[in-house]
Each structure stands twice: as C-alpha cells, then as structure tokens.
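can u do me a favor
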C-alpha cells in the first residue's frame, strides 16, 4: 500500500471564486421557480448600494467583528446578480420577443430571420436554428428578438443555405408542445434551455432568400473548416462505423451513428468518448503542450508564445466542435490553467473550476440546467477530489500496471462524481465501464492525434498517399475499438441499475457523498452520524415506495404518433395493448419511461387489441374500456349492459356522432387518439363542449390515466 500523505486542509478563504459561485447559483435557481418577480432589479440595486456603503465604511471593512455582515452583503449581492442576469438572458419574457408582436387578427404576418448554424439534414426536412430579427405586417416593421426552430421541406435550394443567411417567410410559428406522456423526454424544456420556445414548418416556395448574409466572418471560416474536416474524414475512412465514430469523437458530429452503435457504446460506459467534452480538450492540450515544449526553454518570449499558441489551439478545436457546453467549460478551464502555469503562480484547482463556471454562467445562466454541463463539472470535481485517494489504495510495481491503475482510478473517481446524476437521468450504470475506459481513452488519444494529423495533411500540399495511410490507420484503430466494445456489451449483466430516482434523491445522494467526504477529510463524527441517519431515511422511504408499487392498479392510455397504446398496470407488471405493431422507438420514448417510474422494468407483455378475446372491450376492475373504430357496429355489444361502459376510445376515424354515443353510454368519458383526422376530432370537440360531454383529445391533452 502507498503511504498516505498528510491531509491537506483547504480553508474556505483560499477559495474566493467558490464563495462567489454559490450565491450566483442560488440566484439562478430562484429565477427558475420565481421568474416573474418584479422587484428583483430594485432589490439588487439596493443590496449593491449597501455593499458599496459597507466597503466605504473603513471600520466595517477592516473590523473582524463585522466580517459576517460584510460576507452576507456580498452573498446577497451575487445572488441578486445571478437572478438579474438570468432574467436578462431569458428572451421569452422580454417585451422585444417576437411573440408579443403577433396579434390574433386575420392579417398575415411575415418574419425575417437569420440562420445561427448551418442547416441540419433530417430524414424528411432540414432543421434550421434561427434568430427572428423582425415581424412585418401591411403597415409596419417591428424589430424583435428570440430564437426558434424551423423545418424546411427538402429541395435543391435548402441545401445551398449557409450560416448567417437571412430569409423571410410567413409567420407559421407555434409554441413547442409539452411532453404528451408522463415521464417522457420533455423536448420543450430541453429547447427552453437554449431560449427556444417556438417552431415552424415551411414548404418549398413559402420562404425567400434575401441575398444577404449577416454571419460573423470568423464563424464562417470555422464552419467552412469544419465542413472541410468532415469531407476529409469521409474521403479517407471507408468503413461506415469507423467513420461515424471518428466524426463524433473528433468533431462532435453524430449524424452517422446508428442506433446499434450508440447502444454498444452506451452499454459499455464509453458513450462519453463520442460526446466531445473535457476529455477531448485535455487530449488536445496535452498533445499541443508536448509538441510546443521546446518553446518553454526559450525564455520569456518563448513561454509567452507557447501560452498564446496553446490558447489558440484549444479554442480553435472548441469552435471546430460547434462549442457544446462541456467543451466550452473545458476550454475556459484550460485557459485559466494555461495562463496560471505560464505565470508560475500557485492556482487552486477548485478556484479554476469555479472561475470557469462563473464565466460560463454569467454568459449563459441557462447552462446550469443542461445535463452535459452538470455531468462535466461533477466529473471534474470527482476526479480532483477522489482520484488521489483512490490511486493511493494500491502500490503498483510495474509501469504498465501503474498506468492501468492510474487510468482506472480516474474512471472510478469520475463515476463517483457523476453517479447520482447518471442514475437520475439514465436510470442505469454500465457494469464494465472500467474495462471499456482502458480501451477507449488511449484509443481516443490516438484517434484525435491521427485525426488532427489527417486534417493537417489535407490542408498542406502533401501527397494524398500519406493522407490515405493515416485514414487507414484511423479506420483499423476504430474498427478494433468497435469490435472490443461490442464483445464487452455482449457479456452478461452489461448494465446495472433499474432505478428511477426523483430529483430530491439525486440531491440527497450528493449530500451523502459530501458528508462522507467530510468525515474522511476532517474526521467529523457528526457528519458520519448524519450520513447514516439519511441512509436510514432513504431506505425507509424506498421500502414504502416499493410497497405502494406492489399494490398499484391502473389503466394508462399513451399518446403515440398517429396511434395510441393502452397499458394495464397491476403491481410491478404491465400489459400493453396496441392496434398495430408497436415499434421499439415508440415504446422506448413514449411508454417505457413511465412504466419504469412505476417500478416496472421487465414484466411487460405486449398484445394486439384486435386479438383480445373480449375485443373491442377491455375490463379492469370497475373500469370498462370500449374501443370504437371504423368497423364499429352497435350490435357488437348487445350482450353488455350499456351502463357498465366507463370509457370509450375513439380510434381510426369511426363515423359516429358523439351526441348519440353519449345518450347510449351516459356514464362514459370519450377519448380520441392521434389516429383520427384533425377535422373529425375538432367536430367531436365542439359537440362535447356544446353538450357538456366528458371528452379528452390526446393530441392536445396527452395521455389519459384512470
């Protein structure tokens, strides 16, 4: 065993940026729950004035007795800054947002918008992320702000659009719909993190190019360089799977990753390699640092040149990957580190992390709610704190075993830091993550190095044979990596988990980690006692929840695109009924998350409603669900007492009158799924409102639970 070094106690006074980050986070969180508090600016200005007065009062500033007052004022000052900065960044609630300039009149409106990114090709359309610059009507033009997503029908003109192009089109924006099934992925909240709340679909001929481009020249050059790099990879890597991994790993381009390949990486815990993050920025920094090492021996000018080149290299790579939050965080953090090392000053690592987080959150407070941002920071903090302690547990004699253990300790530390978030967001953990990281991290270093070398040879006037040789090496390397990971994914129990945590459970898990770390670091007994008390509470709450899950009985009708699915839940078992074959995608995105929240992970049976012995009637305790479709005839249920029907599901455009059915089944609630035509559902809705008939439109109201 390695000898334990003396404990390094870190005083909170050594972490000024951490002390500023905490109240800033509090202000951002407060805005999430109270976004329309009108006195925020007045309170912030008042706290700022008090802080300036307190600083001007010399005896208050210098006296230790008033240190708490001074600290409290600074705390509220930064908390107010966090709230106000988030309010300023939220375009949706600002008066200049384009939604405030569109009335309910019949007058046709037009919008002028600018492309914020190059078009992203989808299966049936091109997706555009745009900034709405103005709204036009017949009388005036209104300058606006706000972002949106636009889908353009595929044609030859769309493929020619570039970043910065300015277009004009009729106003067809609609608010992005919330998730229509419980516990399903909330696309609306996901886009709201990027200040996007509206979307539109435009057919060919509905939009016009204004022959203007308002993009920044630097970003134009970077997008062209990115396109050139993508074409270079496609030219010299001929294996489709190797090309997909190379594009994702080096450029963050995941368009070529098919579902099976993604599942292989996800089940083995190697998915983080395909999501460009701090690991990739660290590799770029390490390679450049080694390459530029001779400059450090050339005096002050050499060191300054090396620092400048490192900063340029890190940020060019970050921009080349389209600057996702994890890369932005890593680029900022490595910039702090590079400058600190060049000045040869002691820099506390936690201060560097807090400083990068401060910069990012002041620039965009919504980053706090992005999963990548959260995972990135918790992984880095976990590595910094836990890795040295884990590494000291074993004393490896040989270089190879020491290298493997060091790499494994980093992986374990990162997983400890991200464990609560991983279980909260993904509900499971890969069992063989340690083995996969021993494969993918060294391979990622080689892949990134070879990819950068390939891009360089393609830019410089070098023989195409050299570029092809590098492309072949990349292809063989990634084919081998994919093969090894596929074999790992086929091992028994490749994933562990089957848990569905609430947000408070993830926070409680981090509190437990903090208390346990405090006990190890400072030997606080009360921290350990509180930790054990919270564990007992957690176990008791889990036992109570499990008991409730075993006793649950309910019907759930899920919304599906152009269809629906009926789930009969009994304890921790479920039977899912559908009219047509249920695709794996529909099941995974619309049904599976909700069943997992009910504790149902494996005992799920799927049946066709047409094959049910009691079709078109399903029974569940006191609930009797009648399914009416185009083949419906009233004589089908002559043997069933009419008053027993409690719910009626209208499917596939049945030619029925809602008023007549309501008279026949007076106690029934009517449910129309997405297989019905819009005009027919609209007709039923009007009839239901007129006759006060209980009616549920699944396209609008989502799943129906009873």
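np, heres the sequence
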């Amino acid at each position: 065993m390695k000898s334990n070094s003396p404990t390094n106690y870190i005083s909170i006074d050594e972490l000024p940026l951490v002390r500023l980050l905490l109240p800033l986070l509090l202000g951002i969180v407060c805005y999430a729950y109270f976004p329309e508090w009108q006195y925020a600016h007045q309170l912030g200005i008042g706290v700022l004035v008090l802080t300036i007065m307190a600083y001007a009062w010399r005896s208050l500033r210098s006296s230790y007795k008033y240190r708490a007052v001074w600290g409290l004022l600074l705390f509220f000052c930064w908390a107010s800054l966090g709230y106000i900065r988030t309010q300023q960044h939220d375009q949706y609630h600002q008066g200049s947002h384009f939604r405030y300039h569109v009335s309910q009149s019949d007058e046709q409106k037009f919008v002028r918008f600018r492309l914020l990114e190059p078009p992203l090709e989808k299966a049936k359309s091109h997706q555009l992320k745009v900034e709405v610059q103005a709204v036009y009507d017949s009388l005036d033009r209104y300058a606006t702000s706000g972002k949106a997503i636009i889908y353009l029908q595929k044609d030859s003109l769309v493929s020619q659009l570039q970043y910065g192009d300015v277009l004009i089109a009729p106003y067809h924006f609609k608010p992005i719909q919330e998730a229509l099934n419980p516990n399903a992925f909330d696309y609306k909240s996901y886009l709201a993190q990027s200040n996007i709340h509206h979307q539109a679909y435009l057919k060919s001929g509905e939009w016009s190019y204004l022959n203007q481009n308002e993009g920044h020249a630097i970003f134009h050059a970077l997008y062209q360089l990115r396109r050139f790099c993508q074409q270079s990879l496609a030219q010299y890597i001929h294996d489709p799977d190797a090309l997909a991994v190379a594009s994702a790993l080096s450029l963050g381009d995941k368009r070529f990753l098919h579902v099976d390949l993604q599942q292989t990486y996800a089940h083995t815990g190697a998915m983080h390699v395909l999501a460009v993050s701090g690991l990739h920025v660290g590799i770029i920094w390490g390679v450049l640092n080694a390459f530029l090492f001779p400059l450090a021996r050339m005096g002050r000018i050499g060191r300054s040149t090396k620092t400048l080149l490192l900063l340029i290299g890190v940020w060019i790579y970050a921009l080349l990957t389209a600057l996702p939050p994890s890369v932005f965080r890593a680029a900022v953090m490595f910039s702090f580190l590079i400058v600190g090392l060049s000045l040869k000053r002691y820099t506390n690592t936690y201060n560097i992390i807090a400083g990068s987080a401060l910069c990012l959150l002041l620039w965009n407070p919504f980053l706090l709610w992005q999963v990548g941002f959260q995972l990135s920071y918790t992984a880095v903090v976990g590595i910094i704190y836990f890795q040295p302690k884990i590494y000291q547990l074993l004393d490896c004699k040989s270089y190879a075993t020491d290298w493997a253990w060091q790499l494994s300790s980093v992986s374990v530390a990162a997983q400890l830091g991200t464990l609560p978030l991983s279980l909260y967001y993904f509900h499971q953990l890969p069992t063989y993550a340690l083995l996969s990281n021993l494969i993918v991290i060294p391979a990622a270093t080689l892949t990134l190095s070879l990819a950068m070398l390939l891009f360089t040879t393609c830019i410089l006037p070098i023989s195409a044979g050299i570029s092809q040789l590098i492309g072949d090496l990349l292809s063989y390397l990634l084919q081998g990596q994919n093969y090894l990971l596929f074999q790992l994914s086929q091992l028994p129990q490749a994933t562990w988990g089957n848990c569905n945590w609430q947000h408070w459970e993830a926070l409680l898990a981090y509190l437990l980690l903090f208390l346990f770390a405090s006990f190890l670091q400072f030997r606080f007994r009360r921290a350990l006692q509180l930790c054990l008390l919270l564990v007992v509470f957690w176990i008791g709450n889990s036992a109570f929840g499990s008991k409730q899950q075993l006793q649950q009985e309910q019907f759930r009708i899920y919304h599906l695109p152009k269809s629906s699915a009926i789930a009969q839940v009994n304890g921790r078992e479920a039977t899912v009924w559908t009219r047509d074959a249920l695709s794996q995608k529909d099941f995974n995105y619309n049904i599976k998350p909700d069943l997992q929240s009910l504790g149902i992970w494996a005992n799920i049976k799927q049946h066709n409603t047409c094959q049910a012995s009691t079709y078109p009637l399903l029974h569940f305790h006191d609930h009797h669900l009648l399914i009416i479709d185009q083949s419906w005839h009233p004589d089908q249920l002559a043997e069933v007492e009419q008053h027993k029907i409690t719910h009626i599901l209208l499917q596939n455009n049945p030619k029925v009158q809602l008023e007549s059915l309501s008279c026949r089944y007076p106690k029934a609630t009517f449910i129309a799924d997405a297989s019905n035509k819009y005009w027919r559902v609209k007709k039923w809705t009007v009839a239901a409102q007129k006759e006060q008939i209980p009616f549920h439109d699944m396209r609008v109201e989502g799943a129906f639970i009873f």
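The first helix runs from residue 16 to 33. hope that helps!!
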